[in-house]
Amino acid sequence: MTLEDIRFDCDLEGTIARVNRIRGTDINLGDVLAALALYEDSLMGIPDAASIYDFETTPEYIENLLLTFDFAMVRVYAEHETSIPLELVIQTKAEIKLGGVKWILHKADADPFPSRPHAHDYQNGLKLDLSNGRLYKRMKCEGSIPKKELLEIRRMYETKGVSLPELSFAI
Predict the structure, then answer these.
(1) End-to-end distance of the chain based on CA atoms, in angstroms?
(2) How far apart (Å, rounded) are the C-alpha atoms in residues 78 and 123?
(3) Are 94 and 86 in contact (CB under 8 A)?
(4) Considering only CA atoms, which of 13, 126, 4, 122 is closest in space to residue 54?
């Protein structure tokens, strides 16, 4: 059974909600995908984020992972309680939310496609090219977001200190 099968046939969202109640957490599908990518050696070097849905597993395995995984490893928050100045904290991930979509950018993402860096919408299995707004699913361009939305996403990432690729269209 693939993760895609579990997502649609075995109520993965329900499993996530149940685990959140048990653990008192607020993990989401993006956190689950990031956890799997970190935890499973077989997922190292997958060609794109959407390929994670082809991962062979069981509902029980996923639930056990959710109950035991340290999700602090995959989350970085702007607020922190430490004496280290925020600008010196090494952040490996930047998250923004716009229009109900959570975009996750991995600052040290080894995959340069479609841009370096690019943003992931794990909920929908999409990658966003931050140079032109094109949306990719499994290496195939499926469309694009409006220029105005791309510029807002870029602005939000820039406020988090992310260096972005040059724009490849006229504003």
Answers:
(1) 46
(2) 22
(3) no
(4) 4
Please state the length of the chain. 171
**Sheet-wide strand order for 93-98:** 93-98, 101-106, 118-121, 126-129, 134-137, 140-144
- Tens of pLDDT along 103-118? 988 766 666 788 888 8
159 in Cβ contact with 167 (< 8 Å): no
Give the pLDDT of residue 77: 42
- Write out residues in the chain with pLDDT < 50, as ranges: 76-80, 86, 89-90
Nearest to 33, CA basis, from 21, 6, 135, 24 = 6
The whole-number pLDDT of residue 79 equals 42
Tally of helices (H runs) and strands (E runs) in the chain: 5, 6
Place of tokens 């090219």: 129
Structure tokens at 114: 């479609």
Angle at 33 between CA 29 and CA 34, to 5 degrees: 115
Nearest to 144 by CA among 164, 117, 165, 126: 126
